[in-house]
Amino acid sequence: MEKESAEFGSKKEVRARVRARLRQLSSAYIRECSENLLPLVGRMIQSKEETLNVCLYAPMRDELDFMPLVRSFPQHCYYFPCTDEGQQLVFYRVKDTVEDLCLGHHKFREPRKGVHRLDPSEAHLILVPGLAFTMAGDRLGRGGGYYDRFLKLCPGALTLGVAMQEQILPSLPVEKHDQRVQHVLVPGRETGFDW
Predict the structure, then answer these.
(1) Nearest to 167 by CA among 189, 149, 147, 150
(2) Where are the domains positioned within the chain?
(3) Residue 151, H or E segment
(4) What is the helix (H) or strand (E) element at residue 23, kind and residue range?
(5) How far is residue 92 from each of residues 21, 38, 55, 100, 165, measured CA to CA in Å?
(6) How many Å apart are CA 15 and CA 169, to the nearest integer?
(7) Cβ neighbours of residue 166 closer than 8 Å, sequence gap 6 or more
(8) Among candidates 107, 191, 120, 118, which has minimal Cα distance to 153?
(9) How far is the C-alpha of 141 from the C-alpha of 69, rounded, in Å?
(10) Residue 127's closest CA among 116, 139, 115?
């Protein structure tokens, strides 16, 4: 059963409020927020000598864009999500964000099937989108539970929620199955963690 945050109500109510906020944001502002966080994530992955398995996503209109990492740091392996026949989130290798991504049945870009599929236990870094986050790592997704199920399979990965200031709330309604992210990256907020 869903627990309600006293301040914000049910998940459905919070999703509606956050979606309304996000509709107010310009594409230029979202791009600026993405560009603010890209160098931070770039420094993180550049600091590792070994080849990393990095899970990204093709952004929707109201999500931050980290796809430039694929071109900027080609020494690492990048994986993008889609759903399989059982409606589970799976990640496939993408080397070229133009050639290797196509419009999927959920109407967002996803990797072409047939390329290398990631074993979740081999993920090193996962950039996790969401509608809302708390700075403590609670996350509210879009309602399918896809990332919650996937993150449970990746105990060794560093999980980073990525959000704009408008997506940060003091508390969120959470359920037992909801998976926290380890850190939340927000433009303009200093982060204090080592990897």
Answers:
(1) 189
(2) 11-185
(3) helix 146-151
(4) helix 11-23
(5) 32, 22, 9, 10, 30
(6) 12
(7) 18, 21, 22, 25
(8) 120
(9) 23
(10) 139
Interatomic CA distance for residues 36 and 30, integer angstroms: 10
Query: Residue 1's pLDDT is what?
Result: 38
Domain 11-185 sits in which CATH superfamily?
NagB/RpiA/CoA transferase-like (3.40.50.10420)
User: How would DSSP label each residue in 46-85?
Assistant: HT-SSPPEEE-----TTS---THHHHH-TTSEEEEEEE-T
Tokens representing 178 are: 């909801």
8 Cβ partners below 8 Å, 6+ apart?
A: 14, 17, 169, 171, 172, 173
Per-position pLDDT tens, the chain of length 195? 344 444 557 999 999 999 999 999 999 999 999 999 999 999 999 999 999 999 999 999 999 999 999 999 999 999 999 988 777 899 999 999 999 999 887 678 999 877 699 999 999 999 999 999 999 999 999 988 999 999 999 999 999 999 999 999 999 999 999 999 999 999 988 666 667
